[in-house]
Amino acid sequence: MDTRINLFENEIGARFAKRFANAALVIHGSPLPSSTQELVSLRASQINGCGWCIDLHTKEAAAAGESAVRLHLVAAWRESTVFTEAERAALALAEEGTRLADAHQGVSDDTWAQVRKHYDDDQIAALVSLVALINAANRLAVITHQRGGSYEPGMFAAALD
User: Fold this and answer.
1) Cβ contact 103:109 at 8 Å
2) Which entry of 38, 69, 94, 143 is 20 to 30 Å from 48 by CA?
3) How confident is the model at residue 7 (pLDDT cuts 50, 70, 90)?
4) Could you give the percent of the chain with pLDDT greater than 90?
5) For residue 102, with 0-12 CB atoms within 10 Å meaning exposed, 13-18 middle and 19 or more buried, which class applies?
6) Is residue 51 part of a domain?
């Protein structure tokens, strides 16, 4: 499977990518813990089958000090003991926000209550925005056949300079 188009080499794609990255910078600069941001991005990417994003977020998280055990267990976070209650709430929101077509009511009231229990309004705004943004990124990469395996930490940021 070859990449269909390199959006960074296309004028419209590159302009969009820079704006998309600016939206991501808002989230990265938020008070939502960066480890939570990477775990949420990784989980949504796993659900969406986005090899490029799984590669990116696994490697960025590892480079930032995230443990291999936690990264390996993200796909089975409900059946593991290595995540905090706050992280579990964020992962539940990520799953329900990603699987909107599967969950007839979207994000459940129980999940929302757990998110409210562990995060303030600024963190929640960042978390909701992150779920939307990573799902959009997954779709861009899957549609264009961006494949995982070649990402190096910091590569995405360097491509946007």
Assistant:
1) no
2) 69
3) confident
4) 76
5) exposed
6) yes
- Of the candidates 95, 42, 34, 48, which has an alpha carbon nearest to the alpha carbon of residue 71? 42
Q: Is the dihedral of CA 66, 71, 77, 79 positive or negative?
A: negative
- 12, 103 contact by CB (below 8 A): no
What does the alpha-carbon distance between residue 97 and residue 115 come to, in Å, rounded to a whole number?
13
Q: How many domains does the chain contain in total?
A: 1
pLDDT in tens, 11-24: 998 899 889 989 99
* Per-residue pLDDT tens digits for 77-128: 999 999 999 999 999 999 999 998 887 778 999 999 999 999 999 999 999 9
Cβ-based neighbours of 41, under 8 Å, separated by 6 or more: 53, 57, 130, 134
Backbone torsions φ then ψ of 134, nearest 5 degrees? -70, -35
Q: Give me the residue label for tokens 């979207």.
A: 106
Q: Is 111 buried (19+), middle (13-18) or exposed (0-12) by CB count in 10 A?
A: buried
What is the extent of the structural domain holding 130? 7-159
Q: Give yes or no for a contact between 75 and 46, defined as CB atoms under 8 angstroms apart.
A: yes
13 occurs within a structural domain: yes
